[in-house]
Amino acid sequence: MSLYPWFQQIWQQWCQTLAHNSVSPATLLVVKEGMGEATFIEAAARSLLCVHGSELCGYCHGCQLMDSQSHPDFHWVKPEQEGKSITVDMVRQINQIAQESSQFGGYRVIVIQPAHLMNESAANALLKTLEEPPSHCCFILVTDCIDRVLPTILSRCRQLHVSEPAHTVVAEWLARETGQDIAPYMVKLNDYAPIRALHFIQSQEHKNYLRLVELFCHFLHSPLQSIHALVDEIQMSPLVRLTWLWYLLTDAQKFHFQTQDEIVLPKSEEVAQYLSYSMLYQQYRELITLRHRLEVHRGLNSELLVFDWLSKFKGAPCLSTPTAI
């Protein structure tokens, strides 16, 4: 199987570990979400389960079972729902699997992703296994928030950090993959994560972004006439749209200090010209709080909360009491 270019260096490190028969019982893969990390994780698992090791032959029984996603010695643990924790019961189950014998007399591979979403009880339960690791059992923990992983877990893991590719490298790769010129803001808006940016382009999300910022600018000029259209647009995907607006407000603030990044989002200068820095900063902070509330409490009325946030721009009292929602 082929790996993305930005994983080649870390793959060589992994292969050297295999060649020296020094695979750690627990490896922590630190990688930004949206880099295509699943391909590396699968390749690492296959290298332990394939009879030919890192050659990944593709035709042995282990490889065939991996192809059919039915290998009995490979387990991938994720939260039951997006945003939820990995519970202690889930960890206890994999701890039991770790103590059992391999079905094929080789490795058992257990992936925990994202590792930082293990609650405290779950992390402590895993720690007990990592302190006395079973023979021929390899845990691969994956995170993009290493500061949220317990230090005691970190101390038991060999860490592999995936370096982010330069934005020019990402743009060139995206151009080859899509066969089109890539506007730099498309890369920035996806936190320079190549696979996330690819999905953004392929699903035509850049058109949604441009429509959103156009509506936002109309709203700043004519709040009463435009607020409902803007709220409706944000409601198409609240967390995604609000994240885009967070990037926009971030860039707009930088214009006030003349510290713009090399890549500037469309309409950010127009927003900076229309809003004072104090208003931008206030609404930027309010937006961070709003996004966090919607992420943590999925049952909240996002439409009403978004309307309330928008009503605070310029402190317009006529926008402070929504009546049509």
Automatic annotation (TrEMBL):
Q: Which UniProt keywords apply?
A: DNA replication, DNA-directed DNA polymerase, Nucleotidyltransferase, Transferase
Naming one, the record's GO cellular component terms include:
DNA polymerase III complex
Q: EC top class, in one word?
A: transferase
For this protein, what is the EC number? Answer: 2.7.7.7
Q: Which domain of life is it from?
A: Bacteria
One GO term under biological process is: DNA-templated DNA replication
Transferase among keywords? yes
GO MF annotation list: 3'-5' exonuclease activity; DNA binding; DNA-directed DNA polymerase activity
Which residues belong to any copy of the DNA polymerase III delta subunit C-terminal domain?
237-313
Record bears the keyword Transferase = yes
Cross-referenced InterPro entries: DNA_pol3_clamp-load_cplx_C (IPR008921), DNA_pol_HolB (IPR004622), DNA_pol_III_delta_C (IPR015199), DNA_Rep/Repair_Clamp_Loader (IPR050238), P-loop_NTPase (IPR027417)
Reaction catalyzed? DNA(n) + a 2'-deoxyribonucleoside 5'-triphosphate = DNA(n+1) + diphosphate
Indicate what this protein is called per its UniProt record. DNA polymerase III subunit delta'
Species for this entry: Vibrio gazogenes DSM 21264 = NBRC 103151
